[in-house]
Amino acid sequence: MACAFEGPTHNYYLFSVFHRSLMGDRFGTETEVFWNKYVGNDPRFSSYRWSREVVMDVAKRKGDTEMMGYLRLLNSYIDASVFYDAWEYPSKEKIAQSQATMRELQAEARKYKGRRFRAQYMLMVMRTHFALKQYREAMNCWTRQGQKLPQSVYRDLMQNLYAGCLLRLGQRREAVEIYAAQEDFASLQYSVRNYRNLAGISKVFAENPNSPTLLYLVQDFVNNLQETQDVYANEWLSKEVYPEDSDKVNWIREIGAQSIYKPEARQFIDFARRVVASGKSRTPCLWMSAIGCLEHQMDDYQRAKIDLAKALTLNGTPRMKDNARAIYAANSVFVEPMKRKYRQWMAAELQWLDAKSKLDITDSVLTDDHYRDVKERIVYNGLVSRYFKSGDRTMAMAMLCMMDNEFKRIVGMPNWRHPDFKAADKPWNSDYFGEYFEALDSVNVEQLKHYARFLSKKPKDALQRYVWDKCYRDADYYNDLIGTKLMARGRFAEAIPYLEKVSMAFLNTQNIVPYVRHRSYETERWLTKQKVGDEFEGYMPLLTTNRKVEFCRRILAVQHLYRNMRPSEQRLEKAYELASLYYQASYLGDCWWLTQYGLSSAQDSTKTGNMDFVAYAINLLEESARSSDFSLKQKSLYALAFIPQDSWYEKGWDGTIGVYHDLSNPSVHPASRQSRAMMRLAEFAHDNAERIAPYISRCEELKAFERTRLTTPFAFFSYDGCFLEEFTCPY
Q1: In the prediction, which pLDDT does 133 show?
Q2: Would you say 449 and 458 are in contact if contact means Cβ atoms under 8 Å apart?
Q3: How many Cα atoms occupy the beta-carbon half-sphere of 560 within 13 Å?
Q4: Does the residue 551 lie in any domain?
Q5: Is the predicted pLDDT of residue 509 greater than 70, yes or no?
Q6: Is the pLDDT of residue 159 over 70?
Q7: What's residue 710's pLDDT?
Q8: 681 and 541 share a domain?
Q9: Which helix (DSSP H) or strand (DSSP E) does residue 725 occupy?
Q10: Within 13 A of 95's CA, how many CA atoms are on the CB side?
C-alpha cells in the first residue's frame, strides 16, 4: 500500500473484557524487575534484551562468577534461538546450527548443581527441549522437578512451557486451562488461532460453554467486525472482496485481523442470543454486550441501547460489566436528546471513565488504556460531531481542547507548552497543530471571541463544567489567536487591543520566534529572501517587543497617508510601500508569521475567510507601476512578474507525454497573469537595456521566459494586447 499521512480516526476498539496488557508478554515485567534490581537501577538498563552488556558489566564488577556463568549460557540461548516469520525465515543451515547449539546448552545446563539459579537452569533445560521439539522430555522436566520448585516467575515460565507442549501434543483443553490460570492471553490467542470465526466459536462453546478461550474469541470477533468495516468500507456488508482490493486483504493479514462481514455478524447475534437463553454460560453479560456492540457498529443504535441495558443486568466479571457500561455510554450519543438530564448523566459517565482510566494505567505497563480510548470515541466521534452539526461550536471546541490537554498530560510532555528557546534541545510547542488548533483556526473572529468568553467564566451546566475544568484557558493564547485572526482579515486597528494584552513571556514560547527575530517586514520580498540562519538551532535571543502590534501600527500609518493623498507620485510611492507590507504578511511573504502560525509547502492560496493580501498587493503594484519615476516603475514591474500567483508555467510530471517540466523545460500558460507581467517586464527591459537594475538584467526566470518565448508553439502577446509574434519549436 502507498504511504501517506492520515489524520487520527479516534476509532479504537470498543470491546474489551480483559485488560489490554494481558495480550503482551505475560512474564516480561517480573523478569525485568529481577534484572533491574540486580544492576541497582542502573540508568543504562532498559530491558535485558537491549541492555544485557550492562548486566554483565555489573556482574564482573561484583566478581559474581556464578551470575557470569548463567549470563553466558542465557546469552548463547538468545543468540541461537530462531524465529519463523514472513520477513526473515531461517535457512536450513541456520536451523541446524541452532539445534546443535541447543543440545550443547542443554548439556551445560544439566551440570549445574547449585541452589541460587536452580530454577533458571531447569528452565533452560526445558527451553532447549522445547526448541528441539522434544515436547515429552520437556513435560517430564516439569512433572518430575519443576512443579516442586518454590513459587517464582521462572517456575511460572516452566509451567507455561509445559502448557505449550500439551498444546503441540494435541491436548488443547488442558493447555488452555493453564494459559487461562496464568492470564496468558497471547498464548490463548495462539491456541485458538484457527477458531476466529462463528464456526470456531460455536465449536469451542459446544466443547465447553465456559471455556476461557471464549473470552478472547468473542472479543476478537466483535473487534474484527470493526476492523473489517474500517478496511473494506462498504464492502463489509456482503462477503465479497474485489480483485483490486488485494492491498486491503494484505493489510488485514499484516495486522493479524480476521475479516468478519455483516452476514456472519448477524448470525453471531442470533447464536449469542441462544447462548444467553440456554443458561449454559456463567457470564451471559459477555454475550449480550457483544450483541449490543455489534448492533452499535452496524448503526442499529436503538436496538443496541436495549441489549446493552440488558447486559448490565446479567452475570459477568466486573470487567465485563464495565465494558457494557462503556459501550452503552458510547452508543447513547446517537440516540439520546441533548437535554439537561442527559448532559448531567454524560458528565457523570465521563468522570467514571476518567476514574477507570487511572486504574487501567496504574495496573498496566502501557499508558494507552482502554477507557481513555472509549472516552476518545465518545468525544471525537460522537459529541464533537454532534455539537458542530447543531451549530454549537463553542462546546465542540471546548471538548477538543479537553482532549488535547489530556493527551499532552498522558504523554508526559509538559515542556511542550512552555519551551525555552534559549535551550539547545528546544521542545516544540504543540499548541499550534492538531485537531484543536485546526478548529480554532477554522472559525471566524466572532466565534473565536465567543469561545474565549466562554473560557473566561466557569459555566453552571454539568457537562459544560466538566469540560471547562479540563480546558487550556491561558488568556494570552486566545488574545494572540484573536488578534492574529483579525490581522489576517485586514482588520489591523481591531487587532491591536487584543495583541497588546499578550505578555512577552508568552510570545517567547511560540514556534514562530526564530522567524520573528530574523525577518523584517520592511524588506521587499521580491528583492531579498530573508533566511533563518544557524541561530535557529542554537541560542535564541528573547523578543522584547510585540512585532505584530508594531506591524499593525506601521501599516495603519501607511494606509492613512495613502488614502488621504491626492493622485501624485507620492501616492504611488505609498501604494508600492503598502503592497510590500501586504505581500510580506501574506502566505507568500517571509513574514507569514504575522498572520498565521505555520507554513506548509502545500499551501497555495490564502486561507478561507482571510483577506487576500497577495491580490491586494498586486492591485497596488499595478497602480505604482504607472509611475513616471524610473526606479519605482521598474521595482513595481519586477514585483508583478515575481509574484507567482497564476503562474506563467507549470512544473511537474506530465504522464501524457512522459516529460518532467521545470524552469529549464516549462509547460507554459501564456494567458496567465504572471505571463502577462513577465511580458511587460521583458518589454520594459528591452526598451531600457542600459538603465535597468541588475536584479532585472540578471534574473534567471526572466531569461527562461525569454527563451521559452522563442521556442514554444504558443502565441505570446504584448501587454497592450497587440499580436506580437508566433514562434514554432524548431525541433
Answers
A1: 95
A2: no
A3: 8
A4: yes
A5: yes
A6: yes
A7: 74
A8: no
A9: strand 723-726
A10: 9
* Type of residue numbered 383: L
Same domain assignment for residues 610 and 688: no
- The residues that bridge with 654 in the sheet, in sequence order, are 659
Query: Residue 711 and residue 477: Cα distance in Å, rounded?
Result: 55
**C-alpha–C-alpha distance, residues 364 and 255, integer Å:** 22
* Distance, CA of 229 to CA of 250 (rounded, Å): 15
Residues 633 and 698 placed together within one structural domain of the fold: no
Q: Is 730 exposed, middle or buried (0-12, 13-18, 19+ CB in 10 A)?
A: exposed
Average pLDDT on 73-102 reads 84
Do 636 and 490 lie in one domain? The reply is yes
pTM of the model: 0.83
- Which contiguous run of DSSP H or E holds residue 43? none
Q: Which residue has the cell 510601500?
A: 577
Q: Give the whole-angstrom CA distance, residue 277 versus residue 289.
A: 14
Number of domains in the chain: 2
Q: Are residues 554 and 657 in the same domain?
A: no
pLDDT exceeds 90 at position 729: no
At residue 49, the pLDDT reads 87
Contact 573, 624 (CB under 8 A): yes
Same domain, 484 and 627: yes
Three-state SS annotation for 365-382: CCCCCHHHHHHHHHHHHH
β-pairing, 649-650 vs 659-661, is unpaired
Question: Model confidence over 47-59: pLDDT tens digits?
Answer: 898 899 999 999 9
611 lies in some domain? yes
Q: What is the pLDDT of residue 727?
A: 30
Question: Pick from 671, 618, 625, 627: which is nearest to 649 by CA?
Answer: 671
Above 90 in pLDDT, residue 722? no
Does the pLDDT value for residue 273 go beyond 50?
yes
Please give the Cα distance from 137 to 143 (Å, whole number): 10
Q: For 387-401, 472-486, 646-660, which range has the lowest pLDDT when averaged over its residues?
A: 646-660
- Let me know whether 637 and 495 are in one domain: yes
For residue 8, what is its C-alpha cell?
A: 487520527
Q: CA–CA separation, 348 vs 376, rounded Å?
A: 16
Q: Give residue 529's pLDDT.
A: 94
Residue 584: how many CB atoms within 10 A of its CB? 25
17 is a domain residue: no
Q: Is residue 360 part of a domain?
A: no
Count of CB atoms within 10 A of residue 520's CB?
12
DSSP 8-state assignment for residue 660: E
pLDDT at 724: 36
Residue 652 burial (10 A CB sphere; 0-12, 13-18, 19+): exposed
Measured from the Cβ of residue 349, the count of other Cβ atoms closer than 10 Å reads 19
Q: What is the pLDDT of residues 373-403, one digit of tens each?
A: 999 999 999 999 999 999 999 999 999 999 9
- Give me the chain's average pLDDT, please: 88
pLDDT of 249 strictly over 60: yes
Using DSSP's 3-state secondary structure scheme, residue 220 falls into helix
Listed residue (103, 106, 96, 98) closest to 141, CA to CA:
106
Report, as an integer, the average pLDDT of 155-184.
93
Do 664 and 572 share a structural domain? no
Q: For residue 635, give the C-alpha cell.
A: 521595482
**Unique residue bearing C-alpha cell 497587440:** 722
For cell 528591452, the residue is 686
Residue appearing with cell numbers 525541433: 731
The whole domain housing 659 covers 648-668+677-726
Burial of 607 (0-12, 13-18, 19+ CB in 10 A): middle
Answer for the pair 343, 461: CB distance below 8 angstroms, yes or no. yes
Distance of alpha carbon 436 from alpha carbon 308, whole angstroms: 32
In whole angstroms, what separates CA 640 from the centre of its chain?
Answer: 40
